[in-house]
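Ticket #4471: structure output looks truncated?

Reporter: J.K.
Steps to reproduce: submitted the chain below (125 residues) through the standard prediction queue, then opened the result file.
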Amino acid sequence: MNRILIVDDNVNHAESMKDLLLTKDYVVDTANGCGEAIKLMKDNKYDLFLMDLVMDEKDGVETFKEIRKIDPKANAVLFTAFGIQEDGEAGLLSKAIIADIHDEYLRKPIDAEELFNAVEKHINN
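Returned output as attached by the reporter:
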């Protein structure tokens, strides 16, 4: 059974994504930021991380860098409520690409089919 960690400081959004993924029989945990994600990693092995790009504690790129220190083979899909044309967001996406963190991103609100496709692509990679 594949295990996924959703890291998003918007609890409602994380729970909505979790509910969708549970319909496909994934084991899903949620964390509301970097600190909680790192704590969960101590007791669990994750096949995929779904990361919000913009969070209060640390952005998704910095959070995933911390995750990669623990699990160098960790795989992530980033998501955002903003488009890549927005300067701050484009900077974070560029930072993610340079850090070799992702090759795609999803836009909030998350489309269920796009979510399922991204998860399947990265879990079966």
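Triage note (M.O.): checked the attachment and the full token line is present. The radius of gyration is 13 Å.
Status: closed, working as intended.
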